Hints:
There is one protein chain. The protein is 31% helix and 30% strand. By secondary structure, it is an alpha+beta fold. It has one domain: Gcn5-related N-acetyltransferase (GNAT) (Aminopeptidase, 3-Layer(aba) Sandwich). The longest helix is centred in the N-terminal third of the chain and has 13 residues, at 50-62. The N and C termini lie far apart (57 Å).
Amino acid sequence: MYLLGNTDRIFQQILLCQLISVWFRGIILLRWKPGFIDMKSIRKMEEQDRQNVLEMMRVFYASQAVFTNGSEEIFRTDIDQCIGENPYLEGFVIENQDTIIGYAMVAKSFSTEFGKPCIWIEDLYVKDEYRGLGIGSDFLRFVEAQYPHSLLRLEVEAENKRAVHVYKKCGYDVLPYMEMKKSI
């Protein structure tokens, strides 16, 4: 592919395609949209990400996308577990040219109902200014590549129509039963 020459023709092709994602080694994504080219990466959460992730968690849990409001103590515990040695929880940050634009957390378990590992997408947050660029879909494909032969599950508020649309577009189905909990 060349980028020199007839740039009008290139941008016309880009406009026709609207959006193209290319994966490199499963973690680097190039995305072309009319007028710009940017590069995103998904990597494991590290100690240096703590403050950025904490700020995004505050916004996420204060939104209507989440049923509970969480707490500072829970946010800090979640980040500690993602950064630490917890085998059941992993945290990821999504970057655009060294700027953190989102985060996600996935929890691991086993589904006896389906007879395979179960990966729960616990949190998936993208900053407002980066929404609508396919980043959520890219993260879901990333999880599929990281955890092949697994059952992927997530929770979404029915009112969060944008997220529901993304999940359905990516092949997720609504389950026909309610979920219950008890905290001990």
